[in-house]
UniProtKB/TrEMBL annotation:
Keyword annotations: Acyltransferase, Lipid A biosynthesis, Lipid biosynthesis, Lipid metabolism, Transferase
CDD domains: LbH_LpxD (cd03352)
The keyword Transferase is assigned to this record: yes
Keyword Acyltransferase included in the entry's annotation: yes
Protein name as catalogued: UDP-3-O-(3-hydroxymyristoyl)glucosamine N-acyltransferase
Organism of provenance: candidate division WOR-3 bacterium
Classification via InterPro entries: Hexapep, LpxD, Trimer_LpxA-like_sf
Pfam family, one: Hexapep
Any single biological process term in GO: lipid A biosynthetic process
Length: 201
């Protein structure tokens, strides 16, 4: 990949107008960056990732869905890693979508409009975070997790793989299941299910 002014750019990368990129960033092959967006220093963006895609917003008119244009910026702070095929949506006008420093995001994660992800989080593959969700600092999210819109996840929380989060999660809590609940509660629930409803061998 060619390196220009400490920016490493893979083949097929598209950088749109209104995009600012810090020193030391690495852009993988076929990544797409659409403005307005601010990409911090030493950010790594994987192949095929799309930063600043259109947010998913529509309004019912009585006869059909009307598309609501988004135009708010995406801000990715320094030392963030974004995996292959990740999509990060533009914010609504007057808002921002922000991923704070040090966060690491695996492949094929979707981050909706107006989402705020805190510092030093880790998010595993195939997770979807809906619009206006707030993720605190140092949160760990397993693979295939779904987080509903406007949900708040507190600092240092753990969301285990394949959980469906419909309500806010307290700081430091460990949640699992569908719908997600405290992990010890989920394990007790499944123990009761096995005891009463599954055949014994």
């Amino acid at each position: 990949m060619p390196e220009t002014h400490r920016l490493t750019v893979g083949p097929g990368v598209h950088i749109g107008s209104g995009v600012s990129i810090g020193e030391g960033a690495i852009l993988g092959a076929n990544a797409v960056l659409l403005g307005p967006a601010v990409i911090g220093g030493r950010v790594r963006i994987g192949p095929g990732a799309v930063i600043g895609c259109q947010g998913f917003g529509y309004e019912w008119t009585g006869t059909g869905w009307r598309w609501l244009e988004h135009g708010g910026p995406v801000v990715i702070e320094e030392n963030v890693d974004i995996g292959a095929g990740v999509t990060v949506a533009q914010a609504k006008a007057g808002r921002e979508t922000r991923i704070c420093r040090g966060t690491k995001i695996d492949a094929h994660v979707h981050i909706g409009h107006n989402v705020r992800i805190g510092r030093d989080c880790v998010i595993a593959a195939m997770t979807g975070i809906a619009g206006s969700a707030f993720i605190g600092d140092r949160v760990r999210i397993g693979g295939q997790v779904g987080i509903s819109d406007h949900v708040r996840v507190g600092d240092d929380a753990i969301i285990m793989a394949r959980s469906a989060v419909f309500r806010s999660v307290p700081a430091g809590a460990c949640y699992s299941g569908n719908p997600a609940r405290p992990h010890d509660e989920t394990t007790r629930l499944w123990a009761r299910v096995r005891r009463h409803f599954l055949p014994r061998k």
